[in-house]
Specification:
The complex is a heterodimer of chains A (about 160) and B (about 425). Chain A has about 160 residues and is of the alpha/beta class. Helix content of chain A is about 35%, strand content about 20%. Chain A has 4 helices and 5 strands; from the N terminus they run E-H-E-H-E-E-H-E-H. The termini of chain B are far apart. Classes of the chains: A alpha/beta (about 160), B alpha+beta (about 425).
């Protein structure tokens, strides 16, 4: 789903929801993106991505402010929210879960950095998932985290759009 | 702005796709090799039960984000087989065109992002990009053209939405194909550059006597149609697959392993296709292969990277051929009347043979489904190759051995994340 605000330009924030709707908590990023699109109508361009790294590099090409949301599996308690700023710290490779191929969110960010293609401002929200088995529902822990991240992203957008 | 956090990751426990390799060495010889894999598609077989036949391409496409077209093609061909439907002419050509897009993006991703770093001594593509940014940029640009071709024909690059039993929901005009046609000329040149690049890599000497299994078609390099053949006498129709191939459960893996009945392990994928169908590669692709030092037959799995690059040249060539001859069909699909029965479909995913079989009831609902991905089929051969490879390199340290084993596993471009650096190698020496 793609939402275009009235004046589309590189300065419009880009929100990227990453995930797989069929793998339980792996849908978290997509759910966040859809809710942000409804709540923050007109304040950002919102896209959904599967997490394949090369596609991500293309998705954020030219954007000046990117907020990316995805499920993670790092060993923290389910529902934990991680907030990363790639400009300040490298993202550990393999941090984000991508089911089949090694080139995913973290690798895309680090590759963009190596190629000088990292967006000037970027925020990454990782939602610690509990259950990634095939299924269509979020776990309660992930669902709670999704609510909180939607609020945080909306606040980030409001702050940015005021600047 | 907000605070940043440093995340300490000690161990990643993936739910699926974790590759584990256990090697037992006793008395200076490899006595056991186990490739431990958790295979996701089995859930999808259960998910499909009770669904309408028309949902199969959209549901199975979710099995893989890199090769969704393969699942869509195998599923629609199986349904059409069940219902006695034949898709020909420009619609058939459009399906090949869509598949070419997927071959390009999948092969290029693997060559540049996953496998080339091994041969050049880099930890990953990120490190490679620091020294060779233009090489990596070329790979990314080439991959994007494959994805864009999938978007133009399939409606969306990941999990295309335009595919259905009988054809498509919408077919493009020639005008809509003009831009991608132009860019495919650059892609073909970039693919030739890719062959030249990988041909210079150092390849360990590792020739094996494989039984190669692939589709074979009288008129074309195989994508969607053909008989299933091998270099050791197999020659069967797709519907006879389960008479000749068996799946077995092994204790150390949640994935079913495939074997040829009475013969054992076999190899599917680009090497198999190349060896069984060389004459149907385009002249340019054949020439690129020869210039890279390949003969008509290649038995070294480490040279699969060259074969993938050659197939990328072919896919660009074939796409340009189809585009040059394209005339918009009058209808985007042929009529389909579901009926009770069993349908079989087998197409050549980038990684090899992908077999689908569906039983449909009189209402057009799926009673049961069987899906055998190429990576499942190659598991036994991966284990055999690793056993032979480790045997020949017992003198290496465990760290060096792990690195080489990962490289060897990547020869198969497995569609599970055991192709990553999370290959957990345990070596039991006594």
């Amino acid at each position: 789903m793609d939402q275009h605000p009235p004046t589309e330009s590189a300065s419009v924030p880009l929100v990227i929801g990453v995930g797989n709707a069929y793998r339980g908590d792996d849908a978290a990023g997509l759910v966040i993106a859809r809710r942000v699109a409804e709540v923050a109508r007109g304040q950002a361009r919102v896209v959904e991505e599967s997490g394949e790294g090369a596609a991500l590099l293309e998705a954020w090409r030219g954007a000046r402010f990117v907020i990316l949301c995805d499920a993670v599996q790092s060993g923290a308690a389910p529902g934990t929210i991680h907030r990363l700023e790639p400009a300040w710290t490298p993202v550990p490779t393999g941090f984000f879960r991508y089911s089949t191929h090694a080139f995913s969110v973290a690798e895309a960010i680090e590759l963009a950095r190596a190629l000088g293609e990292l967006p000037p401002r970027m925020l990454v929200y990782g939602i610690e998932g509990a259950d990634f088995a095939a299924g269509l529902a979020l776990s309660p822990a992930a669902g709670g985290a999704v609510d909180a991240v939607v609020c945080a992203v909306v606040a980030d957008l409001q702050t940015y759009n005021k600047e | 702005m907000g605070k940043s956090k440093t995340i300490q990751v000690d161990y990643l426990a993936r739910v699926e796709g974790e590759g584990g390799l256990h090697v037992k060495i006793s008395g200076g010889a490899v006595t056991d090799v186990q490739l431990r894999i958790f295979e996701p598609p089995r859930f999808f077989e259960a998910l499909l039960r009770g669904r309408a036949y028309g949902e199969a391409p959209d549901i199975t496409a979710r099995i893989c984000g890199i090769c969704p077209v393969a699942y869509q093609m195998s599923s629609v061909h199986a349904m059409e087989d069940a219902f006695g439907v034949r898709v020909d002419g420009q619609l058939r050509a459009l399906r090949r065109l869509l598949y070419c897009g997927e071959w390009i993006e999948s092969h290029v991703l693997h060559i540049y992002m996953l496998h080339a770093p091994d041969f050049l001594g880099y930890q990953d593509a990120i490190q490679l990009a620091k020294d060779y940014p233009d090489v990596v940029r070329r790979g990314l640009a080439l991959k994007k053209i494959g994805n864009d071709l999938m978007s133009v024909i399939g409606g969306r690059e990941i999990h295309p939405i335009n595919v259905r039993v009988g054809g498509f929901y919408r077919v493009p005009t020639r005008q809509e194909l003009a831009d991608i046609t132009e860019r495919l000329h650059w892609a073909r040149d970039a693919a030739l550059e890719t062959v030249r690049l990988v041909a210079t890599f150092p390849f360990p000497s590792f020739e094996q006597d494989y039984e190669f299994v692939a589709l074979q078609h009288p008129d074309e390099y195989p994508l969607n149609e053909g008989r299933i053949v091998s270099n050791k006498g197999l020659d069967i129709a797709v519907r006879e697959y389960e008479d000749h191939f068996a799946e077995q459960h092994v204790a150390h893996s949640n994935a079913l392993q495939s074997a040829l009945k009475g013969r054992g392990a076999y190899l599917a994928g680009p090497l198999a296709r190349y060896n069984l169908n060389f004459d149907h590669l385009s002249p340019l692709a054949q020439e690129a292969a020869r210039a890279a030092g390949l003969g008509r037959v290649c038995r070294n799995p480490f040279q699969s990277i060259i074969v993938r690059a050659v197939e990328t040249v072919y896919a660009c060539d074939e796409a340009l051929r189809i585009l040059a001859e394209y005339e918009r069909p009058a209808a985007p699909a042929v009529p389909v009347e579901p009926r009770a029965g069993i349908g079989y479909g087998c197409t050549e995913a980038p990684r090899g043979l992908l077999y689908h079989r569906y039983e449909i009831d009189e209402r057009g609902l799926i009673v049961n489904a069987k899906i055998v991905p190429p990576t499942s089929q190659n598991q036994k051969m991966i284990e055999l190759d690793l056993a032979r490879f480790v045997s020949a390199h017992l003198d290496l340290t465990n760290d060096e051995l792990r690195w080489r084993c990962e490289q060897a596993v990547r020869n198969y471009d497995p569609c599970i994340s055991c192709a990553t650096h999370f290959l957990d190698l345990t070596i039991d020496r006594d």
